[in-house]
Amino acid sequence: MTAIDFIEKKKRGEPISMVTSYDSWSAALVAASDVDVILVGDSAAMVMHGHSSTIPADLPMMAAHVAAVRRGAGDAFIVADMPFLSFRGSIDAAIDAVGMLMRAGANAVKLEGAEGNLEAVARIVGSGVPVMGHLGLTPQSVNAFGGFRVQGRSREAAERLARDAAALQESGCFSMVLEAVPAATAETVSRSLTIPTIGIGAGSGTDGQVLVLHDLLGLQPEFKPRFVRRFMDGASLITDALNTYHQEVVSRQFPTVKEAYS
Ligand code: KIV
């Protein structure tokens, strides 16, 4: 997969699948699967570091996750999230941040929002780095939104979303995430663009879907928003395996002679 393939897939009407990964071992599993793209999301701050939002993610944290993912992912296409405020201070600072993520092993970067970002997007794209946009519920703005809420519900908000999406496309984005947007709005925006949209909580009318790996594997059973489908009950499987291991240790069934050196 390359940035060019995203647009080609949209032209052919082929949906794009993307999942998050933050470490080497899960990246190797995703890279060995049929999934098209790996996102090193700033959701790492929540999933891997236990924070309640993505705001604590910073560049060293993201670069370390990107580097770990690259070591496991072979030549899979990796999109790296630009963390909170890393692209807002100045264009030079944004370019430095992009350099850090690309040197760590990313193939593209993703940044949240359109307003105030269009010049930076154009400069990053002009520097040879594909940029994925992210509109709708942009989690780095959780404090402005008053929580993790569906966006684009009113007519004005839906029109603003469509304008922002067009502006990001115009600035050179090769694709964009639409997060927590009413399905009909996400579909209208997707149809209005030549670049693919990748939805999360945005219905089936987008050009692709993205989920957090831990959500789709059922590893965070307490987290069950409407848009998540669990493709396995990972938490139960892991707990069962750990309990079996414990039982076999205390009953001295593990290790056997075959699992020991003579
Ligand atoms: O950080 C992340 O995981 C994301 C996805 C939810 C799209 O941005």
Name a few traits of the molecule.
TIM Barrel; 2 domains; eight-stranded parallel β-barrel; 11 helices; globular; binds 3-methyl-2-oxobutanoic acid
Q: What does the model show?
A:
With 262 residues, the protein is of the alpha/beta class. It folds into two domains: 3-231, TIM Barrel; 233-262, no CATH class. It contains eleven helices and eight strands. Helix 2 links the parallel strand 1 (16-20) and strand 2 (37-40). Residues 20, 39, 41-43, 81, 177, 179, 200, 210, 212 line the site of 3-methyl-2-oxobutanoic acid (KIV).
Terminal Cα separation, in Å? 48 Å
Radius of gyration: 20 Å
The biggest beta sheet is recorded as: 8 strands, parallel, barrel
Give the CA-based shape. Answer: globular
The CATH C-level name of the largest domain is Alpha Beta
Structural class: alpha/beta
- CATH homology superfamily name of the largest domain: Phosphoenolpyruvate-binding domains
Average pLDDT across residues?
97
Unreliable stretches: none
Helix share bin: 40-55%
- Total helix count? 11
Kindly estimate the percentage of residues that lie in beta strands according to DSSP: 5-15%
- Per DSSP E runs of 2 or more residues, the count of β-strands stands at 8
Topology overview:
Blueprint: H1 3-12, E1 16-20, H2 24-31, E2 37-40, H3 44-47, H4 59-73, E3 77-81, H5 91-104, E4 108-110, H6 118-126, E5 131-136, H7 142-145, H8 155-171, E6 175-179, H9 183-192, E7 197-200, E8 208-211, H10 213-216, H11 234-250
Parallel strand pairs: 1-2, 1-8, 2-3, 3-4, 4-5, 5-6, 6-7, 7-8
Helix pairs in contact: 2-4, 4-5, 5-6, 8-9
